[in-house]
Amino acid sequence: MSNNTYSKLIEPSIKDARKRRKEEIKFSIFDINPKYLNFGVGKKYHLKTYGCQGNLSDSEKMAGILEALGFIATDIETEADFVLFNTCAIRENAEERVFGELGRFQKFLKQKPDMIIGICGCMPQEEKTVRRLKKSFPYVKVVFGTHNISSLPEYVYDAFNGQKVVEVLSIEGNIVENIPVKRDHLAKAWVDIMYGCDEFCTYCIVPYTRGKERSRKPESIIEEVEALAKAGYIEVTLLGQNVNAYGKDFTDREYGFANLLEDLNKTSIKRIRYTTSHPRDLDLATIKAMALGGNIMPNLHLPVQSGNNEVLKRMNRKYTKEEYMEKINLLKEYVPGISITTDIIVAFPGETEEQFQDTVELVKEVEFEGAFTFIYSPREGTPAANYENLLTEEQKHDRLNRLNDVVNAHSLKGQMRFENQVVEVLVEGPSKNNPELLCGYSEHNKLVNFTPKTAKVGDLVKVKIIKAYSWHLLGEEL
Ligand code: SAH
Ligand code: SF4
Ligand code: F3S
């Protein structure tokens, strides 16, 4: 068969991806067609993941599917028969890195011409990515997006049989349950609670790459969490682009994110975290559910993006700085000691120096214990990509640096409060820089390196903190 026959050729459409109809969400149960069973036996795969936790979770599912077909994982790139890039489209530099990697893999094809290279995730959901792949990367044989992970068996089968597959669906999305999952961690697990995003922040590509907001049924989530607890998992992180919109799509019941937290609070899992929250949709019921404590951990990632109301408006964030502060104050009141982190974009088109200063002031006022800070990156197809941006590269970097200085000062302050305190750590493994120490995360999601006594990976142990540093706490097991 020729290398140029396509078994599938469906290209993305940003216009279709933007649509939101009021159709019922289709639920289905994953199943592998017997035709593909054992197809991967004797073959190795190498999966590279970029982007958010949503992608990490998807990659664990794709690894689960590949292993169900008989493939085994390899860390050695040149050994792989199938290499798959699960990609992120959030900013230009994330994308360029992937194109660079695809170029690097081209030379492996000279030694191993049978190697199949594939790309999936958010980048192929963009029209410009697929255009560029076809033009400059013809050796990429498998291209699919975020909506059809469950078709992976068919895609690899076709590709190994000499065909090319391009199938990127620009649909609103459905929900497929029971996909096998090969989890990366022994004690921590991702649990998707919903998919997609309907917020349409003007800078963001996610609503186009991930489809509309759609929620898994609470029964499925609770069952998964209980099964994880029984299997020895200690911590789950509930995932969604905007978890506070959980349940808004249910037509058969009134059930929201706060209800889910309350129900999961009664399960036997020891730790629950969740991400990401949208400040507008974070409600008092959720804050009260967090106040239940127990297995609900006292940390929250609440992306603010900007501290200026005019910029927030042009970002379509639908809250003001004052409304954001109100929620922060409620969180601090109901969950004493809560650790709050955020995301911030600088140099959004039209952002003035004064508006930037409002963001700096907000960071000081909230005392965020950490922040991911980004320079605005235009995304084709989003409204803000057409806004005029007169800032020079130098000005953009200068704002980022000045913001980071303020953020870092507060992070350190947030770390210092744990000196001489005892925290509980979920042990992840040896510390990166000192193999004699173990590391893990505390209730407040602080990285802790500590001298162990009897602790081993997957244990929850008490650690006395001796010293706080900017990026970790140092302690010893009690
Ligand atoms: N759903 C989450 C995560 C979105 S992506 C949320 O709403 O917070 C993670 C972060 O990337 C965002 O919070 C935002 O700060 C940043 N981001 C998104 N689009 C961006 C863009 N075009 N340029 C720069 N940063 C961006
Ligand atoms: Fe993007 Fe906004 Fe949705 Fe977050 S809430 S994924 S920033 S559109
Ligand atoms: Fe990136 Fe897609 Fe996540 S664009 S941030 S991988 S939803």
The amount of beta strand, in percent, is 15-25%
Largest beta sheet: strand ordering: 1-8-7-6-5-3-4
Shape: globular
Mean pLDDT: 96
End-to-end separation in angstroms reads 65 Å
Uncertain spans? none
Describe the structure.
Helices cover 32% and strands 23% of the residues. The chain has helices at 14-17, 53-68, 92-111, 127-136, 152-160, 206-210, 218-230, 257-265, 284-291, 309-314, 321-334, 353-366, 393-416, and strands at residues 6-10, 27-29, 44-49, 72-73, 82-87, 116-121, 140-144, 164-167, 175-177, 188-192, 194-195, 214-215, 235-239, 271-275, 299-301, 339-346, 370-375, 422-430, 438-441, 447-451, 460-468, 473-477. Strands 1-8-7-6-5-3-4 form a 7-stranded parallel sheet, with helices on both faces. It has a 5-stranded mixed beta barrel with strand order 18-19-20-22-21. A 3-stranded parallel sheet has the order 10-13-14, with helices on both faces. Strand 18 and strand 19 (438-441) form a beta hairpin. The longest helix is centred in the C-terminal third of the chain and has 24 residues, at 393-416. Bound molecules: S-adenosyl-L-homocysteine (SAH), iron/sulfur cluster and FE3-S4 cluster. The site of S-adenosyl-L-homocysteine has 17 residues, from strand 16.
Secondary-structure blueprint:
Blueprint: E1 6-10, H1 14-17, E2 27-29, E3 44-49, H2 53-68, E4 72-73, E5 82-87, H3 92-111, E6 116-121, H4 127-136, E7 140-144, H5 152-160, E8 164-167, E9 175-177, E10 188-192, E11 194-195, H6 206-210, E12 214-215, H7 218-230, E13 235-239, H8 257-265, E14 271-275, H9 284-291, E15 299-301, H10 309-314, H11 321-334, E16 339-346, H12 353-366, E17 370-375, H13 393-416, E18 422-430, E19 438-441, E20 447-451, E21 460-468, E22 473-477
Parallel strand pairs: 1-8, 2-9, 3-4, 3-5, 5-6, 6-7, 7-8, 10-13, 13-14, 15-16, 16-17, 20-22
Antiparallel strand pairs: 11-12, 18-19, 18-21, 19-20, 21-22
Helix pairs in contact: 8-9, 9-11, 12-13
The protein binds S-adenosyl-L-homocysteine, iron/sulfur cluster and FE3-S4 cluster.
